[in-house]
Specification:
Elements: H1 7-28, H2 48-64, H3 82-95, H4 104-117, H5 120-132, E1 137-140, E2 156-160, E3 163-170, E4 181-187, E5 198-204, E6 210-215, E7 224-235, E8 239-240, H6 246-264, H7 267-278, E9 282-283, E10 286-287, H8 292-320, H9 329-351, H10 369-380, H11 387-398
Parallel strand pairs: 1-4
Antiparallel strand pairs: 2-3, 3-7, 4-5, 5-8, 6-7, 9-10
């Protein structure tokens, strides 16, 4: 495979970079100190002014044609090639911007799932407002006792005329405090094996009986939420796929999520920041940049990041051919989140006692951002399926190993 860029592709990169830089500067420059945080980290903010700016950024991405490069033109996307998608992702991650504006779940995975498995009426009703940002979406999967064992979910939906009546609870629901709609996994048959009695619903979060409560994390942020359902009525027309066969639909959504899981983590940007860090500190009484252990670790990180990038091209190829991403997408998700964690842990190691100083502490290196990253990094190895689950998928479905 030839990885050189054509003149047209190089021009696309320059045009994309210039647009992203100027737009981000206009909307966010006064909000972000580049040594402290990224614009993407503000995506689940509770600050209404910041959220309004995020929505404006979303609308501008859409108007410029960058928002849904991977969507078919039929549904308002650009139908772009693999290389153009990759270039856009590179430039977004370099600047620490959100990949899909304010509607990450919709553009990344929910929209593609509806395109593949939804009814024509569902496609006509829901896809366009996702693109314009008029309707923000979140994902209702995990429950207090059904995380990695997602098929153990208890939230149930009872058919009643032209509706389902939903009762139960979801947890760790990112961005539910901003969302108008949610994809929701519910149990519609308790008499069959747990994977078979699940259905996949599209739920209006403004419906009576829904309560959203934010969850404060160890980082101090509140991007996650609990969502409670008390007799919520959902039209039968909002069922995606067949009743009791929602597990297959949910897997499609998870595969899209995992395919992009190796994209969302800006590991190459983080490695570049680590290189800057080691140039400014000492490790074991010598300049960290000259220490052989530090140099070897950085070289290994760079090699891993390159492998991750090449694997990303493979996952995008499946989407370009309008196929549901396969289990190989778990490889990208596993590699990206584990590498992200190792980068944060290595920064802590070379910072020594300074790594214990939190954001804003007087003597904290780089304002304490590395400590914040270490605290936050573990969550990514859990969200979207734990690293242990990804290893099982790779072992069983890619390598053909027997179940343990």
């Amino acid at each position: 495979m030839d990885f050189d860029y054509t003149t047209e592709q190089q021009n696309f990169r320059l045009k994309t970079r210039a647009w992203l830089e100027s737009t981000a500067a206009e909307l966010f420059n006064d909000l972000v100190d580049s040594s402290q945080t990224t614009i993407e980290s503000l995506l689940y903010t509770h600050d209404e002014d910041v959220w309004r700016r995020m929505l404006e950024y979303h609308r501008r991405l859409h108007a410029a044609g960058y928002l849904a490069l991977h969507w078919p033109k039929q549904w308002g996307g650009a139908g772009a090639g693999v290389v153009e998608q990759s270039i856009y992702q590179d430039e977004v991650l370099r600047l620490g911007l959100p990949l899909y504006g304010a509607n990450n779940f919709a553009i990344d995975r929910i929209g593609p799932t509806i395109m593949m498995l939804g009814t024509e009426q569902q496609k006509q009703r829901y896809l366009q407002p996702m693109l314009t940002g008029e309707e923000i979406w979140c994902q209702g999967y995990s429950e207090p006792n059904a995380g990695s064992d997602l098929a153990g979910l208890k939230t149930h939906a009872v058919p009643d005329g032209d509706s389902f009546v939903v009762t139960g609870q979801k947890v760790w629901t990112s961005n539910a405090h901003h969302a108008q709609f949610q994809v929701l996994l519910v149990r519609t048959d308790s008499s069959v094996p747990k994977h078979r009695g699940i259905s996949y619903l599209l739920v209006d979060l403004r419906s009576p009986g829904i309560t959203v409560r934010p969850l404060k994390q160890i980082t101090g942020e509140m991007g996650f939420n609990e969502v409670f359902y008390d007799g919520v009525r959902v039209p039968r027309s909002n069922l995606v796929g067949r009743m009791n066969e929602g597990w297959q639909v949910s897997i499609a959504t998870l595969m899209y999520q995992r395919a992009s899981g190796g994209v969302r983590h800006p590991v190459e940007r983080t490695i570049a920041e680590l290189v800057d860090l080691v140039k400014s500190i000492e490790f074991e009484r010598v300049p960290a940049a000259e220490h052989p252990y530090v140099r070897q670790k950085l070289a290994q990180f760079a090699s891993d990041a390159r492998c991750l990038r090449l694997g990303r091209y493979r996952a995008m190829t499946a989407q370009l051919k309008h196929r549901t991403p396969g289990p190989e997408s778990s490889i990208g998700k596993l590699m990206a989140t584990e590498l992200n964690l190792r980068l944060a842990m290595f920064a802590d190691e070379i910072l020594g006692p300074y790594a214990a100083l939190e954001n804003g502490s007087m003597a904290a290196v780089a304002g304490g951002k590395w400590t914040s990253r270490t605290i936050a990094a573990r969550e990514f190895t859990i969200a979207g399926g734990t690293s242990e689950i990804q290893r099982n998928i790779i072992g069983e479905r890619v390598l053909g190993l027997p179940k343990g």
